Amino acid sequence: KSLSRSSVRSRMSLKPPKAYNSLQKGALIWDPKPLQVKKIFEALKKGLNEYLEAHQAELDYLSGRHKDTKRNSRLAFYYDLDKQIRSVERYIRKLEFHISKVEELYEAYCIQCRLRDGATNMKQAFSLSPSTKASRESLVELYKNVQECTEDMCFIEGALEVHLGEFHVKMKGLVGFARLCPGDQYEVFVRLGRQKWRLKGKIETDDSQTWDEEEKIFIPNLHEKFEIKVTELRGLATILVGVVTCDSISFFSTKPQAILVDITELGTIKLRLEVLW
Question: pLDDT band for position 259 (50/70/90)?
């Protein structure tokens, strides 16, 4: 166990986020969530492979043009194409390293998860057996093992979050048909963990909408979902339209994701967003 534990820390050059600092003192901040981490890992790996395939296709296309250009074309154009090819090749190598790092982190996470499950099962078995000095000592040791594995899993979750990239969220407006009238003013509040985005909008006389902000960058989080709250502003009063949550797993894609969220229970008012990863 000690060898496995030290190897986990030594393979990670990244410093743990501030949220994990107290782990060094043996205090747990939250319980790891293996099922959620597995979902995010699979979505992340799928998205990274999509990017890799797209750039590999671009490289194949440029390489084909490069061969034709070498035989009969201007020298300047040939060198410009050569620079493009080298740039795409460098990006592909970065993607491949990114994918291998994510896989390495997740493999280490799964090992610690299995060790923790094994120690938990043994702890349960010892607690059901007759109490002796040896069994009590074993229980203490097993409790320490469970705690250490849990700390390592939390540490790896923090390291994995560094590789999740960014979500560029664009405001595309409200959809409400008869519910939206010229002059109506709304406030939209989007939260992802500690990250917040508050913006105000107005329905114009020609049914168009103006918003004081159009785009916000969010850093993906392993455990948190997007929380969206919409309120209508009437003078000094505010009327709650609705509060919804939105999972981010489907956002790990090469293409911009158009999101249409039901704000009211009946779907009479919807919020349109576009998310680019």
Answer: very high
